[in-house]
Amino acid sequence: MLPLERERFLDALRAVLGVAHVLHQPQDLAPYLTDWRKRYTGQALAVVLPGETAQVAAVVQLCALHGVGVVPQGGNTGLVGGATPDDRGEQIVLSTRRLNRIRSIDPAAGVLVAEAGCVLADVQQAADAQGMLFPLSLAAEGSCTIGGNLSTNAGGTAVLRYGNARDLCLGLEVVTAQGEVLDALNLLRKNNTGYSLRDLYVGAEGTLGIITAAALKLFPRPTAQITALAAVQDVAAAIALLGRAQSRLGCSLTGFELMSAHSLQLVQHHFPQMSLPFDLPSAWCVLLESSEVEGESQGRARLEALLEAAMEDGQIVTATVAQSLAQSRALWHLRESIPLAQAQEGLNIKHDIGVPLSRMVAFVESTAELVTQALPGARLVVFGHLGDGNLHYNVQAPQGADAARFLADHQTLCNRIVHDAAVACGGTFSAEHGVGQLKRDELQRYGNPVAVAQMRAIKRALDPRGLMNPGKLLPGEPPH
Questions:
Q1: Which UniProt keywords apply (predicted)?
Q2: In 3D, which of 183, 175, 334, 199 has the Cα closest to residue 267?
Q3: Which among 202, 234, 295, 436 is placed 20 to 30 Å from 115, CA to CA?
């Protein structure tokens, strides 16, 4: 874009949003240009902060007029570079942080309408104030936003009971690539009137349009949530315990997280104020949570009976049940601090794989052998949502090695080993983090060719000029 055209474009943005909400100085742009993992840093013509859907539509219309790509950004907590512009400085970042209103809550219908920039924790609190539950929960919930959660079809720790973000969404408001407002804020549980446009935009990572608001499902708030930590000898024992828990607890089982002993040791090393309730007697731990509607005493008795029976049968080595909300939060904090401990330890090779539970033991055992043979001294930091078959199978550099050099030299080989193994087991290379720019080549390698072709056709139909989050998700898409 020529300098004169650039200034005209910026002036037009200022006329729509006001001078204060069009950022273009380097120091103002900087916080929006690097992803959370610090893997990608781009450049941008400007960062814009619309405060209402009409302003989003007006901005997109201006971008369409001038041929400028739009990179939507919520809390900037993504792990695949999906909200970072490229390095040409010819795109804008559209931050949704000012689209942060709870528009309505209907406890009787179990529906909350939130704008895309609402922080997930604020939505949880708004539901709680009405005696309801919005169950989407993940480590970044204090900073991630609803728009980003939906754009990546976020998973988190309660998928086992409530499903992914898509399952928690009834309808959407979206600004299309042409700057039109699609009002599909369906508030009904049943509405069978043609194509599910919601499902096109959820998980599309902003490549088809910009989500500006969503109608979200609420659930009755549990009367008690009971948390336990159990040590198990191996993954096979963890899966056996999962089956027992599902049989005994039914739909009240809301969380079942697997953590390697090494991942917890990493937390203790970098955050020594956090302590485990027992010495690690085995290679793995499981974090279980039961959400009860019958009362805490009944739920606690059921969970304790489950653990006692599992211990008698040798499925677990030792276990503890949280006796208070503070203890429960402390156990969850151990789990949620694993990614932070990894970041403190240094750059690492992250994987977000999904594998059928029937193949999980074979995957973990064979992949560990392959990785350690190919990368002697590499440390496996494995944890995740075993209940739904999703593991974060991360690989840390050998102790004392240059982490950045390890990442640069070995990421491609490590990805091939881990992703080949997951796909060979009938799994996926991306269970909940999305594709972004990090995994576009993986979609080309592992994606079903017919499915990828259909995705390209949808992209061309809805965004023929390729202005919506260009260079993300679809392999080989030219930047705009």
A1: FAD, Flavoprotein
A2: 334
A3: 436
DSSP annotation of 386? G
Percent of the chain with pLDDT over 70: 99
Q: From CA 129, how far away is CA 150, in angstroms rounded?
A: 23
Spatial separation of the C-alpha atoms in residues 403 and 407, rounded to whole Å? 6
CATH topology of domain 224-339: Alpha-Beta Plaits (3.30.70)
pLDDT digits (tens, 9 = 90+) for 280-336: 888 999 999 999 877 788 889 999 999 999 999 999 999 999 999 899 999 999 999
DSSP percent split of the chain into helix, strand, coil, nearest 5: 40, 20, 35
Give the tens place of pLDDT for each residue, 177-212. Answer: 999 999 999 898 888 889 999 999 999 999 999 999
Backbone angles phi, psi at 224, to 5 degrees: -160, 145
- How large is the C-alpha radius of gyration of the chain? 23
Tens of pLDDT along 383-402? 999 999 999 999 999 999 99
- CA separation for the pair 153, 450 (Å, rounded): 22
pTM recorded for the entire structure: 0.93
pLDDT of 7-24, one tens digit each?
Answer: 999 999 999 999 999 999
Per CATH, the number for 3-95 is 3.30.43.10
Domains 224-339 and 346-424 equal at CATH topology level: yes
Alpha carbon distances (Å) from 311 to 29, 106, 243, 347: 55, 44, 14, 38
Domain ranges of the chain: 3-95, 102-220, 224-339, 346-424
Q: Any idea how long the chain is?
A: 480
**Separation of alpha carbons 385 and 148, rounded Å:** 20
Is there a contact between 207 and 436 (Cβ–Cβ < 8 Å)? no
- Helices and strands, counts by H and E, the chain: 16, 19
